Amino acid sequence: MDDEEEFTPRLKCDVDLEFVGPTGAVIDKWAADVLRALAERVEKGEFGDGFHEVKDRTGKPVGTIYLDYSQGDFG
After folding, report:
1. C-beta of residue 6 within 8 angstroms of C-beta of residue 73
2. Phi, psi dihedral angles at 69 (to 5 degrees)
3. What are the distances in angstroms from CA 41 to CA 21, 22, 54?
4. With 0-12 CB in 10 A as exposed, 13-18 as middle and 19+ as buried, what is 34?
5. Angle value at C-alpha 49, between 8 and 36, nearest 5 degrees
6. In 1-75, where do the E strands start and end?
7. Residue 42, phi then psi, degrees to nearest 5
8. CB of 13 closer than 8 Å to CB of 75
9. Separation of alpha carbons 57 and 37, rounded Å
10. What is the C-alpha separation between 32 and 26, in angstroms, rounded?
11. pLDDT by residue for the chain (75 residues), tens digit each?
């Protein structure tokens, strides 16, 4: 490797969600809605390192998202 090391940005992201509802189709829709909203927030850079509470669109807590931004030689 050259004297000047190259570092690659890295993101570890874990999402843990739990839904209880009347049918499988309903909870699938709820989960998809929450995941779409999370994706938009991650893309906008709204989260820093660590655990963050996740709420559905009514404000009810449904889980957590964990993000760990780092850099290193992951070659």
Report:
1. yes
2. -90, 130
3. 25, 28, 11
4. buried
5. 90
6. 8-17, 50-55, 61-72
7. -65, -45
8. no
9. 9
10. 10
11. 454 567 889 999 999 999 999 999 999 999 999 999 999 999 999 999 999 999 999 999 999 999 999 987 655
Which tokens hold the place of 9? 């940005």
Question: Which pLDDT score, from 0 to 100, does residue 6 have?
Answer: 76
Q: Which two tokens stand for residue 71?
A: 């850099």
- pTM > 0.90: no
**CB atoms inside a 10 Å sphere around CB 62:** 17
Hey, what are 57's tokens?
A: 């669109």
Q: How far apart are CA 6 and CA 51, in angstroms?
A: 28
Q: How many Å apart are CA 73 and CA 10, to the nearest integer?
A: 10
What residue has token string 């009347």? 22
